[in-house]
Specification:
alpha/beta, Rossmann fold, 9 helices, binds nicotinamide-adenine-dinucleotide
Length: about 260
C-alpha cells in the first residue's frame, strides 16, 4: 500500500497521538481527515497541516454517534474520492480503583462509578467499533486498498486502577484477528486490520499525572522513558506501507515490563 496519495481518517486527531500521526502521514503525502469532539482544536490542527504544505480537513465529530462517524467517512470519500486508512484513535480514561478502602477503618469508602465504566466503554470500544464498521464498509464497496487501525495499549495486560480502560484496550487488541477472519471468510482481500498497543506516551492524556507517578511508571520501562507520539506515528506509516502486517496487534512501549512485574508481585 502506498502512503503518498492515500486518504486517511484519524479520530481523536486534534492532539496527542492522533495529531502526531496526522502530521506525519500528511508530510508523507497522504490526504488526512481529522475527526474530534474538540472542534476548535481539530480545525486548528488541520489548518496547521495545510500551512505546512500538507492536505488535511477537519470534521467535528463524536465517535460514539453513528451519524457523526458516517459524516466523517462521507466527507473523506466526497472530498478525496477514496478511503484507504481508518485509524480509530479517539480514547478516554477515567481511572479509579473498583474498591477504595479506608486504611484506618478497613471499610470500603468509595467505588468506581458505573458512569465512569460506561463512559470509557462507550468511547474506546463502541466508538472504535462504529469507526471501523463505517470505514470498512466503504473500503469494501469502493474496492480501494484499505487498512483499519485501532489503538490498544500496554494496559491490555490488565492495569490495576484501570478496570474500565484496560477492558476496552484488551478487547480492541483482538479485533485484528476477528476482523481479518471475517474479511477472509467473506473473500474481502483489499482490507487489512491492525492494532497498535503503545506504552505510556508523552501526550496531554498524561498531564494530570504527578511527576512522582510518571517516575514510578518509567521505573518499570526498560528504556526508562515515555514513548514519543512521533514514534507511534512512524510505526503507523510503516504498517501502512508493509502489506504483510495484517491481523495482529503490535506493541511499541520502550520495553514496558509492568505487566509481568505486577503479576510477579
Ligand atoms: P489525548 O487525550 O491526548 O487525545 C485523545 C483525543 O481523542 C482528544 O483530542 C479527544 O478530544 C479525542 N476524543 C475523546 N473522546 C472523543 C469522542 N467521543 N469522539 C471524538 N474524539 C474524541 O490522548 P492520546 O494520548 O493521544 O491517546 C490517543 C489514543 O491512544 C487513545 O485511544 C489512548 O487510549 C491511546 N493510548 C494512549 C497512551 C498514552 O500513554 N498517552 C498509551 C496507550 C494508548
Amino acid at each position: 500500500m502506498k502512503l503518498a496519495g492515500s486518504v486517511a481518517v484519524i479520530t481523536g486527531g486534534a492532539r496527542g497521538i492522533g495529531l502526531a500521526t496526522s502530521r506525519s502521514l500528511a508530510a508523507a503525502g497522504a490526504r488526512v481527515v481529522l475527526a474530534d469532539v474538540l472542534e476548535e482544536a481539530v480545525t486548528a490542527a488541520a489548518r496547521e497541516i495545510r500551512a505546512a504544505g500538507g492536505e488535511a480537513m477537519a470534521v467535528a465529530a463524536d465517535v460514539t454517534r453513528d451519524e457523526d462517524v458516517q459524516k466523517v467517512m462521507e466527507a473523506a470519500v466526497h472530498r478525496y474520492g477514496a478511503l484507504n486508512i481508518v485509524c480509530a484513535n479517539a480514547g478516554i480514561a477515567r481511572d479509579g480503583l473498583m474498591l477504595s478502602r479506608d486504611q484506618r477503618t478497613g471499610r470500603i469508602t468509595r467505588v468506581l462509578a458505573t458512569e465512569d465504566f460506561r463512559a470509557v466503554v462507550e468511547v474506546n470500544l463502541v466508538g472504535a467499533f462504529i469507526t471501523w464498521r463505517e470505514g470498512a464498509r466503504r473500503m469494501a464497496d469502493g474496492g480501494w486498498p484499505g487498512l483499519l487501525l485501532v489503538i490498544s495499549s500496554v494496559a491490555q495486560d490488565g492495569q490495576p486502577g484501570q478496570i474500565n480502560y484496560s477492558s476496552t484496550k484488551a478487547a480492541v487488541a483482538v479485533w485484528p484477528k476477528i476482523v481479518t477472519g471475517e474479511l477472509h471468510a467473506s473473500g474481502i482481500r483489499n482490507i487489512r486490520a491492525v492494532g497498535l498497543a503503545p506504552g505510556y506516551t508523552a501526550t496531554e492524556a498524561l498531564k494530570d499525572l504527578s511527576p512522582d507517578t510518571v517516575a514510578g511508571i518509567v521505573k518499570n520501562v526498560h528504556l526508562g522513558r515515555l514513548v514519543q507520539p512521533e514514534e507511534l506515528a512512524s510505526t503507523i506509516a510503516h504498517v501502512i506501507e508493509n502489506d504483510a502486517i495484517d491481523g495482529t496487534t503490535i506493541e511499541v512501549n520502550c520495553g514496558t515490563t509492568y505487566g509481568a512485574w505486577q503479576r510477579a508481585r
